Structures are given as structure tokens and as C-alpha cells.
Amino acid sequence: MNVPNISPFLFVTDLDNTLVGDDTALAELNQKLANHRQQHNSKIVYATGRSLYLYRLLAEAKSLLPPDALITAVGTEMYFDRDHSQYDPEWAEILSQGWNREEIVAIASQFRQLQSQPSSEQNPFKISYYLAESVASETLPQLESALSERGYEIKLIYSAGQDLDLLPRNGDKGLAVQFLRRRWDISATKTVVCGDSGNDISLFRGEEKGLIVGNAKPELLEWYEANSSDNNYLARSAYAEGILEGLKHFGFL
Length: 253
Ligand code: GLC
Ligand code: MG
What we know:
The chain is an alpha/beta fold. The chain has 2 domains: about 10-95 and about 170-250, 3-Layer(aba) Sandwich (Rossmann fold), CATH 3.40.50.1000; about 100-165, Hypothetical Protein Ta0175, Chain: A, domain 2, CATH 3.90.1070. The chain contains 8 helices and 11 strands. It has a 7-stranded mixed β-sheet, sandwiched between helices. It has a 4-stranded antiparallel β-sheet with strand order 5-6-8-7, with no helix packed on it. α1 (about 25-40) runs parallel beside α8 (about 240-250). The model has no long low-confidence stretch (mean pLDDT about 95). Bound molecules: alpha-D-glucopyranose (GLC) and magnesium ion.
């Protein structure tokens, strides 16, 4: 018999194709998480690639639970207030190290294979493109060396065979979660992170419990094969049902 967990935990999840993808399972998971938060003071955090603008559209369409903190734009923005109006300034200061947006855009613009994403998905610490999968494996190393020749050790994060994000070396979803845990003083053993694609890999690099949904994309499955450990769990089920499965596996629910 499963003993119900009565101690609070920090639940961090990606949205598209992780929390969101199966509406029935999402409703069940939402109910369990809302109860746990109310009774035991657990915390819910979303870590999404979306801008705040695209996050709000999804949150409304899918009736997402209001989070205790919100990480948007692949970890380059963090909000601790309820209405997400106050972008965390301390995090912005950390991201600014070794970053010069204009110069990085100028270097990347020499690569014709890169097509800019819409302006809503660009921010001071995130430059995003579309890059076709057929040319990604030759383009990415070339771009990386063009950047490092000019002294930029930044992050190139490729997801779902189409999206390329250029991020400061101090910024990604995983580093944002570490920052948040320090601020809230929550240990890694009481934290679970969930994801499905390339921009979630950084979440699984830390000491937290990692939960990969069954529908994960090839780039994350490849990473999992090469880095499997007791800390990371690959669910059999997809989307929110996979999350429920993993939370039971780790004893959080
Ligand atoms: C979301 C963002 C996009 C980003 C992608 C992968 O779709 O809107 O800008 O490239 O996630 O991180
Ligand atoms: Mg996703």
C-alpha cells in the first residue's frame, strides 16, 4: 500500500507536451496538486520556453493552476509575484554576465539557415530562431565556434527539431530552478522537475528528482540513455499521466 506523502515538496514542470497534452489527466493531476498545496504547503512552479505573453494564452485556454513562481522564456525570466508583473531583478543581473545581445545577433545573422522567431519570443536575454533539423547538426557547431571566436561562451539550446535558443551562460531552466531553491531554501531531495524536450535537459542536470514523460522527444531520450541514474525516471505514460506515474514512483504523491 502507498503511504500518502504529507511533507511539502517543490513541483517544477515544463508546460507544452509535459503538463499539457492530455486534458483528462491534467484535470486529475491539478486536483491532486491543488490539494497537496493547500494541505501540506507544497509549491508549484512552471518552467516554460514560452514568453509571458504565450504563457498567458495557454494558462487561460487550459485553466492551469496559478503557480507559486513562474519561469518563462527558457529560464531567462522569473516572476515571484501572483500577477507576474515584477520580473526578478536579481536574476537579470546574473544573466547579464558575459552577454551582449546586439553583438550576438550580429554574429548569428551571418547564418542564413537561421530564421528569427516572432518578436514576442525575443527578450533581452533570449535570442530565438527556427532551424531546420536537416541542417542543424552542421550549423550548430559552426555557430558555436563563430561565437566563441568572438569570446562568447553562451548556450545554444536546440529543441524538438526546430527551435534554437541562444541564452546567457548563466541562464537556462535548470539554473533558474537552482536560484529559486536557494531563495526558498528547499533541498534538491524535496524537488521534482518534469520535462519532455531539449530545453528541459538543463533541469535534469541538477540533484533534483527528474521526471521524463513517456512522450519525450528524441534529444531528451538520447540524453537520458547516456545519463541514466536513480535520480531520473522515464515514465511509461505520456503527459500529465506520466507525471502522476513519476510522482508516485518518487513517493511525492
Ligand atoms: C517555446 C518558445 C520558443 C522556444 C521554444 C524552445 O516554444 O516560445 O521561443 O524556442 O519554446 O525552447
Ligand atoms: Mg515541452
